[in-house]
Amino acid sequence: MDSKSKAVYQSDSANYFLDLISKKTSIYDFSETYISSTTSNAFDIQNGIFNGNFSSSSTGARIRVLNKGLFYNLSTNQLTKDNLISEIRKIKGMPKGNTKLSKEKIVKGTYKVTPKILNASEAEKFAYDLDSYIKDHKEVIYRDISLGYGEEKSMFENSEGSSINSYYPSAGLSIYLLIKGKKSTRERMLEFGGVGGLEVLDYENITNKIGEEIKGLKEVADKGVSLADSKIKSIKNIVISPEISGIAVHESIGHPNESDRVFGRELAQAGSSYINKDNLGMRIGSNIVNIFDYPSIKGTVGFYYYDDEGVKAAKKQIVKKGMQNELLLNREYAGMLGKKSNGSARSSGYDVEPLVRMSNTYLGPGDSSFEELIAEAKDGIYVKSFNGWNIDDTRSFSMYQGNEAYLIKSGEISTPVLNYRLEKSTLDFWRSVSLLSKKVELFNGECGKGEPLQGVPVTMGGPYALLKFR
Amino acid sequence: MRCLNSGESKMLQKDILNYSTKLKFDDIVVDAVSGESTYLKITNSKVDSVVNDNSIDGSIFLSKSKRLIAEDLPDLSEKSVKKVLKKAAKTIGNLPPKKDYYGIAEGPFKYKGKAKPDQRISEFQIGDLANIAESMISELDHKNLTDIAGMVTLEKLKDSLITNKEVNVNGSTAYIKVTAHIKTAEGISYQETAAFSSYSKINIKGFCDNLYYTVSQIKSRGKIKNGTYDLIYKPSSASNLLQEVTSAATISEVEEGSFLKGKLEHRIANENVSIIDSGIAKGMISSSYYDDEGYPTRDNYVIENGMLKTYLYNWSEAKKYNTQSTGNAGLIESEPNTLILNYKNPEKSLDSLISEIDKGILITNTWYTRFDNHSTGDFSTVPRDLAIYIERGEPKFAINQIEGTQTVGIRVNDNIIRMLKNLESASKSSVQAISWDAEEPALVPDILVKGVKITTL
Hints:
The structure holds two protein chains of two kinds.
Chain A: H1 3-10, H2 14-24, E1 30-46, E2 49-67, E3 70-76, H3 81-88, E4 108-112, H4 120-135, E5 140-158, E6 163-180, E7 185-195, H5 203-223, H6 229-234, E8 237-240, H7 242-254, H8 259-262, E9 291-293, E10 316-320, E11 323-324, H9 331-337, E12 345-346, E13 355-356, E14 360-363, H10 370-377, E15 380-391, E16 397-409, E17 412-417, E18 421-425, H11 426-431, E19 433-436, E20 441-449, E21 454-462, E22 465-468
Parallel strand pairs in A: 4-6, 8-15, 14-21
Antiparallel strand pairs in A: 1-2, 1-5, 2-3, 5-6, 6-7, 8-22, 9-10, 9-14, 10-11, 12-13, 15-16, 16-17, 16-18, 19-22, 20-21
Helix pairs in contact in A: 2-3, 4-5
Chain B: H1 13-22, E1 27-43, E2 46-64, E3 67-73, H2 78-92, H3 119-122, H4 126-141, E4 146-163, E5 167-183, E6 189-196, H5 204-216, E7 221-222, E8 227-233, H6 235-249, H7 251-255, E9 273-278, E10 299-304, E11 307-308, H8 315-320, E12 338-343, H9 350-355, E13 359-363, E14 366-373, E15 378-383, E16 387-391, E17 394-399, E18 410-415, H10 416-421, E19 423-426, E20 431-433, E21 442-444, E22 447-456
Parallel strand pairs in B: 7-17, 8-13, 12-21
Antiparallel strand pairs in B: 1-2, 1-4, 2-3, 4-5, 5-6, 8-22, 9-10, 9-12, 10-11, 13-16, 14-15, 15-18, 16-17, 18-22, 19-22, 20-21
Helix pairs in contact in B: 4-5
């Protein structure tokens, strides 16, 4: 260690590095620095066997500089003066770019979520109790419980004067179940958790949900019938659960309304969109389709106060009365469109660039009950959960494989079905929405995008919906 | 916030091992990866942005009386490392044991297949990537192509691994990866990715010419109907699908009930098909001559002449099943290495594969491969960018099922074992195939699979 480095170590606060970076990047059009420190703990119990404890902690900095219209995202976890200066010296040798940022409010403040419970013994007890609960269900022939919790502290500053300190704890639980019935097996992955301490995991709700899932999937595995392709195609009235509403919202509404996709930035990676600059405002769904992205729902995994460009989280109405209404924007695309950002820039860590991302995305409610939807469907199918799913790279043609699904006969739920696939074009799907129930439910997921691939936690959801296809 | 990993003196891996040994752990693995990753994004025919990460990532794996802890180290400073290890020593005794754990690989070992990175690529800087990106844009621009997008990636990484079971190994890699997406005047989109670990093989003009050649064969777009088609998967899509086979062959997935459970020594593929899991394949950017516990990697014939011959194990899993490690650690669970598909006596070109098809589709890229049921191997996947309809041995049109979009708009519905059994032919030229959805490369040719169910609107 040279004497210079030692002196820096003695001044090792993040504030020192923020000042240093600020001075060294002041000659550029714009700069922002994000220093993040994370810790996490996780463990896994497979069929009752504890697989070990996995912990990680990291501290790193991302320096983001706009030079002649081109963004440089430089990151390192070697936080020394010499190394940071060496990173900044990499800003050269690139052609000019076109990026112009939107003008945003200067923000100064500290924003944090306070956890109630965040300790190892509570987490372990929770998972073992859960494992015992599942073990009592003999139809579950394989079970895997993963529980993780952690915290992230971050400091953000930009050359316009914004300065934001954040603290977010989080806890998450994944459960994989393999259920054996008389005719087949069913797989199920369930995700729970959110921003907060272990208190976001409600044991009673979770065990109730697992019990209900095992019962339903066992019935499908025992008694499910396989439908012929022609029968599947002939089904016109479909009731979907909040889980199916959610995945459809995420895949066929949220993603195609990400502005970077719309304008071609993800063409060679996560794809493009059926929405383009010439059809903004197009009709996507029926008049009762309203779709939102709202980061400020407390306790969810998609929660944040300010995005990773220092812009306040906003409620976005992506679809209003069936019409495309609002794109998800970061500062780059807001600047291009002459608008303000709606706070949709997120990164999965200090070592990657912020991208346009969803947070909590959902279909707004209606005023019917679930029973009314089933009765109105008369003859059709009810799809409660999905297993496999996929969608094309323009988000125009999706498929959700029913995991737990039932035929509807004479307005009542009847025979379980093994192989139903809801395979429709995006516009047919959303234009067929005829009735919605009153209550929105959200489901956890991880959303992948960009290169290097970034996974960020999101929720997706909606009410029960009746789709009537012609 | 205090930044723990500032300029304090770094602890050498050997010192971390010695300190851990004093704390009386049974098994100790210390790993460190350092280096630089750079991504130059291309959007709308221009360099769009640069992402560069220069970090050191350390990790340690510890066991004591079958109790396991794996820690990512925040940095390698003496203070931080000792803090982590002392905490681990204190907490490990309170953890439940992993009852089916049987230790890490016990060396010393003899290794083969160690490769040195090309010095000229190791010396590449961000500016050199800008030159590659601009020459790629220029080549494609001259061919009157639009919607040019993509990525130029440079990875320069060094890894070193030391254990308390006589393992002390290191490796390094350096490669360039290029991806380009294009659209022709006729509105037909296409993309490809190539990786180069040898400087002399970097050929941007050749890459662009190949890209253009594929897409220039087709001048129109059209629709097809639901039905059964013979499919030719180009290598990037074949890689995406076939890697499901080596994943399903890891013993951890077999225990979860993968479609290969209970099928050892059963015929699961066409007798001309062999699938090899390899850590030592020459020229592959994913090759590593040792696995995550320092055991030598090798060529494992997972499928040989159509028969399932082995599952994939780390040391502990192999002990559990009374067999030998296959060099596939993952410290907790086995992981696949690089997949190689060998087809017996391949003599055909892609064009001759096409000429054999009466009604079929050339699939160039797929994504969102999802299983309906991992136990049966039923899956669906979605072709993206470009799929070409073939009739009576001739490419006819680019499939485009939804007007006003660039989408192919079809879905492939199959079963992995059925696919392997119906893999009836392959081209003679295997390539290092990568795509956005299959980040790990595989060495595969174009493959022909008969009688696949296609659904569409």
